[in-house]
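Narrative progress, year one. The postdoctoral researcher (J.K.) led the effort to move from monomer predictions toward full complexes, under supervision of the PI. The following entry was the first complex the group processed end to end, covering 779 residues in total.
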Amino acid sequence: MEWKSFLIKYAEIGVKGANRYVFEDQLMKQMRYALKRCEGEFEVRKEAGRVFVDVTSEDYDYDETVEALSRVFGISEICPMMQYEEKDIENIRKEAVAYVGEVYPDKAFTFKVMCRRGKKDYPLDSMEIAASVGEALLAAYPEMKVDVHNPDVYLYVEVRQKIYMYSVAIPGPGGMPVGTAGKAMLLLSGGIDSPVAGYLVSKRGVALEATYFHAPPYTSDRAKQKVVDLAKLVSRYSGPVRLHVVNFTDVQLAIYEGCPHEELTIIMRRYMMRIAEEIAKKNDCIGLVTGESIGQVASQTMQAMLVTNEVCTLPVYRPVVGFDKQEIVDVSEKIGTYETSIQPFEDCCTIFVAKHPVTRPNPDVIRRHEAAVKDKLDELAKIAVETEELIVCRM
Amino acid sequence: MKVYLDNSATTRVYPEAAELMTKVMLEDYGNPSSMHRLGVDAEKYIKTAREQIAATLKASEKEILFTSCGTESDNLAILGYAAAHKREGHHLITTKIEHPAILNTMEHLEKEGYEVTYLDVDHEGRISLTQLRDSIREDTLLVSIMHTNNEIGALQPIEEAGALIKKCNSKTVFHVDAVQGYGKNRIIPKKMGIDMLSASGHKIHGPKGIGFLYVKNGIRLQPILFGGGQQGGLRSGTEAVPSIAGLGLASAKINEGLEQERETLYSLRDGFVKDLLTIPDVIINGREGHETAPHIVSASFRDVRAEVLLHALEDKGIYVSSGSACASNHPQTSATLLAIGVEQALLDSTIRFSFSVFTTKEELDYTVQVLKELIPVLRKFKRG
């Protein structure tokens, strides 16, 4: 079938009240952005509280288009749809037979015709149209059977300015259109978890910026490139990601020199949070996002998170906090970041890691040990913020 | 200051070779198989390159086959010979410290039912001729030994091995992977008992994507690529004329002043090694003086992570490699370093410095000076 239109179904936006149009307009904006990278011309329009995509060019790439739309948060289903100008019932019956003939090569299935009338002056009512179309299908394809309770296929016929016909639904990513919530700062490391965390937060309509801690010569330019690649992969869902690359080496070395070795990672994490928050505030982000999962590593126990959390005033969102590693891996495979995440380049969290880092840090002890070198660290952190490099990542 | 000391990974192309290649691409771009004059002109470049390379080996031009790289040369020699002589035997011999182009090809043949003996090396990376002699059997088809090891610069006793192989089994052929050795050493296959020899363009200031295989007259190979029957059907595919021309020129040029250049490299190397050893806890892997390659220094820096040192040097404009960068970019333990018995703690602390005709004393002095500044700092910040 040569589809030239898509009906876009959205889930949660539908329940929003008076500001529903804000969500719909943002969804359409994100869809247009996603379609810009596809071959062909498209029109995204709203009609009677529904969103449609019409292909306006002669050629386009169906698979590429569906793939692009299936990354737009807010969409629950993408239904490829046919439009017919001729509205009389005989033509609808004829087109329905042709439609089923082409879309379903094997006719041994049960179906139900669902009809809606936007034009109330149409001579037949919805029930009559559905019955007539069903009758025509049964006559054309005797193997087909009607099942009004649990059919294999729902064939939708809508009578509007034109006749719309659709029966196939491709799942979208769900969630809410990016830009309908605020903007958050993602701490992006290069591992498996943080891109997934970014994806999940963005799914709730949140626009993303990201901070990456680079520690040359301990981490290489390839490690940095990997993070840029990950930000680009996440941007396929979230839209452009402004990535802030912070040179963290001097802060790390100063902690190494001035603090107990087993506490190095935890104090380092506190400075990462402080720096990320500083950059977040400068860039109008109203939350931090991390890929932490309770108990995954020493710095992600509840005690450790208590100690790292207390240095921030912004809320810290940890969308994978209750995920097992495999569950995080599953999402990363689904969103296409896994292969990049597992490239073996060292990140700044592991370069000086102690053999036995503290797993239940005491906030008072950590604060006291940090205080010994805090002036110097704060100064170095300030320089790190001031010298950050901004890379805008988009596909 | 930019100091490029990663010449065993790849080298800078001679300007003359780059100019010649540009001319071939823009002006003499014909297909050597075409009947018209442009085709004939293109063919001349190939003939010239064959002559240039053959001259460096005291071989005949018919014995030079162009390939896409050293890896293809190694594959063609081993797979092509094994396939063409599978009725005569199923045994091959190589060493434990070969390049992956040899080791993985051998492994592939093992899966096909061939038997492969891997010769040990001593702590300096040299094979034992006794073990070689004891390994050669009635059904040994081929022995493949690298001329110069790419990681530590160990030189193998090629001439002695060549003679020994012929003495033990006159039917066994001898292949030498000379990707690191060609252009640094005078190699005369007929004199050294070598039947096939692989080399690559980009290690001798020629272009990437081109290599050659010397195949002694009378040695029968089965092709591994099938197509239009170029190069006597042994290597189908339109000849890469610009790259072949560049390779020919680079071969001639690097071999022209070889003896003198070699001595210069040795004296640079000796000085550099002496200076390196003034830094505490530095171990040089492999032999010294003229018993090792003139252009490779493998040094282990205790309590320093190679990757970190590499990036710290890079920050100062000095480009080196850790392990064998030529093979891949993922950190893995080097088979060569393991085979020569480098102690566990030093495996991840080993850096390769490799020189070329463009390397100068000033560059090496600067490198030593930078190392002397960096090493103590890096040793202060350790993992664990």
